[in-house]
Structure formats: structure tokens, C-alpha cells
Amino acid sequence: MEAKTILVIEDNEMNMKLMKAVLQLGKYEVLEAGDAETGLALARANPPDLILMDIQLPGMDGLSATQIIKADERLKAIPIYAVTGFAMEGEKEKARGIGFDGYIVKPFKVKELLDTLSRQFASVPPAG
Fold first, then answer.
1. Which residues contact 89 (CB under 8 A, 6 or more apart)?
2. Whole-number Å distance between alpha carbons of 55 and 94
3. With CB atoms 3.0 to 4.6 Å apart as the test, which of 26, 33, 43, 119 could cross-link to 114 if both were Cys?
């Protein structure tokens, strides 16, 4: 099985380094974007297998970027997981309503993140 590519859209440099290290541990290819606009351009140029989207981003927020991706015929099937430090009641439902496929709360546990991704990819039928 070829390596899955995950696009991480995260503006905090330390969080990005941690996320990249964890994903590489799981043998994933990682694309990095520090803001939503760069993330959208990367997704369009090289559609990833999954997107990990920070909600609080400079400029366009992760909610708006997700709505744009889910409205794009070429990109709408890509699973997007919200990654956020906000774990308030009702946030998960709001995120799912916008189009997120999952919700990861920071700080996350390495094993939980890798298990979540593994389950996601196991449930997705191969393209074609």
C-alpha cells in the first residue's frame, strides 16, 4: 500500500513540527501550510488523502476553508479533521455541520491521533 498524504494546515510552528513528527512516525507523507489560503492552493495542486485543519488561523479561518473545500467538486471527498484547542460543548456538532469528518482536540495523544487516522483510512474504499 502506498503512503497516504496528509495536508496539515496549522499556523503555530511548534504544533506543526509536532504534528509532522507524529505523522511521519505513522509513515504518512506530510504537506504543510501555515494558513488557509496556502492550504487551499496545496490541496488544489496536489489533493491529499486527508486534511488536518486548525480552526484558528490568520486571515481565513479553518471553518471557511473547509466550506470552500467541501464546495469544490474535485476536493469535497477528502476527509477533513478539525484540530483545535477549543473543546467546548457543541463545537463538534458545529464542526460536523460545516463539513468536518472528525474532531481532534489539542493537546492530542500520539497513539489516539494515529489510531484515528488508521481507522479513517481503513474505512475509506480505494479510489477508482
1. none
2. 12
3. 26
Q: What is the pLDDT along the chain (128 residues), one digit of tens a residue?
A: 588 999 999 999 999 999 999 999 999 999 999 999 999 999 999 999 999 999 999 999 999 999 999 999 999 999 999 998 876 667 777 788 889 999 898 888 999 999 999 999 997 655 43
Rounded to the nearest angstrom, the gap between the alpha carbon of residue 126 and the centroid of all alpha carbons in its chain is: 19
C-alpha 62/C-alpha 71 separation (Å) is: 14
CA distance 83 to 108: 9
Q: What is the pTM of this model?
A: 0.92
> Which DSSP letter does residue 74 get?
T
Looking up cell 489516539, which residue turns up? 112
Q: In the numeric block, which cell numbers belong to residue 68?
A: 470552500
SS3 54: strand
Which amino acid, residue 24?
Q
CA distance 112 to 107: 11
Q: Taking the CA atoms of the chain, what radius of gyration do you get in angstroms? A: 13
CB 57 within 8 A of CB 36: yes
